[in-house]
Structures are given as C-alpha cells and as structure tokens.
Amino acid sequence: MTGFSHVDESGAARMVDVSGKEITVRSATAAGRVDLSPECVALLRGEGMPKGDVLAVARVAGLMGAKRTPDLVPLCHPIALHGVTVDLEVDDAGVAVSATARTADRTGVEMEALTAVTVACLTVVDMTKAVDPRGTITDIKVLTKTGGKTGPWER
Q1: Which is the catalytic residue, given 8, 53, 126, 139?
Q2: Range of lowest pLDDT (12-16, 119-123, 145-149)
C-alpha cells in the first residue's frame, strides 16, 4: 500500500502525521451551485421566500460548516481557521456559491472550503424545497489553493 498517505502498512485508514511539515500561510477557494426553477429564482430576487432570507442563512451555515469540517470528514486535521468567506449570488438559473478558507498551519484548507460550499448549498436546498423540490446541487469543486510545499494551484 505504499504511496497512499492515508493508509498504513496493513491497509488500515490513518490520519497523516503533519507535525514535521512547515507552517505556511494557506488558502483555498471552492465553488458550487444550486440549480433552481425560474419561479424560485424570482422569489429569491424579490425576498419572497417562505422560510426567510435564504442567502443570509446559507452564508452563516457555510461558515459554520467550514469550522466543523474535521467533525464531518473522518481523516481531516483540525486546523485553526484564520478566515472564511462565503459568497452567494442569485443568477437566472439558481444560486452560485463560493467560499475561501485561510490559515497559517501545516496542512491545507481545501476541505474546509469544500465543506463551506456544500453546507451553504444544502441550506439553499432546504430553504427553497417547499417552493422548488427539484433544486439540484452541482459542480462543487476546488478552484484554487495556495501555500504549502506544492505552492499555488489553479483549476
């Protein structure tokens, strides 16, 4: 099983020991979207959603999700998040979501950015499902990362 950092010699899953890695400033940006019906988009633009301010609640949910990443992803390291932003934008087809996570630590924050986007998207679906039960989460992915031994990466 050599070559797989999250698997020990016996094939069992393990958390990678990052204690010997250098602390560097790191960031990651992820994105995703929720496709919604035109009727639901119109309600989002007109502040007419029955459950309230969907975008504000989804933004806070995304922030909370980023902070809870190591509780949700089994082998993810608990790291000190120094900043997280979650942005949501209503377009003609639904809601575009992006999140950027930042830290100065020994491992990256891609999982925190992805979790922020995913939880924000789930919240949009939850808060719009009464109006549009066909809401669909799509295209969640890492867009960029910086820091660490490998340096910057862009999709």
Answers
A1: 126
A2: 12-16
